[in-house]
Amino acid sequence: IIVMFSDHGFHLGEKKHWRKFPLWEESPRVPFVVIAPGLTKPDQVCERTVSLLDIYPTLIDLCTLSSRSGLEGNSLVPLLQAPTAPRDYPASTTQGMGNHAVRTERWRYIRYNDGTEELYDHQTDPDEWYNLARKSEFTKLKTELAKWLPKINAPDAPVQKK
């Protein structure tokens, strides 16, 4: 079994940012490859939105290990078997205390620790330029996406002084 992933993206001036830390698409996105003998096929590509939290549950399934409760990720074995299968779990990203994003196939919903929100439709706005969060017609969608936000917010780790 081969699992390959790399560091996350970097903004090079998009939205006036020159760093790795925003919750927009460019920053949390990573290259990710899984090859499972007897399961994946050459040149197989899956376009589903997944999370690195899914790696451990996937390896548990692929290696037929005992399952564990309390894991935040979900096994990707169904997508390795059928790359176009539906996926009922969005990916989530956290950057600092209380700042979270939820990404589905179509939508990115961001809620910051001060309560401000952003909502982007990747079908019509893949570069996330048009924040739809203040439009009343998206209130129900935001409520649905907010259900996937983390329930527990751990404080940032203390900075080690040298």
What would you note in describing this structure?
The protein has a four-stranded antiparallel sheet with strand order 3-4-5-6, covered by helices on one side. It has a two-stranded antiparallel sheet with strand order 1-2. By secondary structure, the protein is of the alpha+beta class. It contains three helices and six strands. The protein is 13% helix and 16% strand.
Topology:
Elements: E1 2-5, E2 32-35, H1 55-62, H2 77-81, E3 91-94, E4 100-103, E5 107-111, E6 117-121, H3 139-146
Give me the side-by-side strand order of the main sheet.
3-4-5-6
The gross shape turns out to be globular
Query: For the terminal residues, how far apart are their CA atoms?
Result: 40 Å
Structural class: alpha+beta
User: What is the radius of gyration computed over CA atoms, rounded to a whole number of angstroms?
Assistant: 17 Å
Mean pLDDT: 88
- Identify low-pLDDT runs: none
Query: Helical proportion?
Result: 10-25%
Could you give the count of β-strands? 6
Largest sheet: 4 strands, antiparallel
Order of helices and strands: EEHHEEEEH
Structure in a nutshell:
The protein is α+β, with helices and mostly antiparallel strands. It has 3 helices and 6 strands, in the order ββααββββα. It is globular.
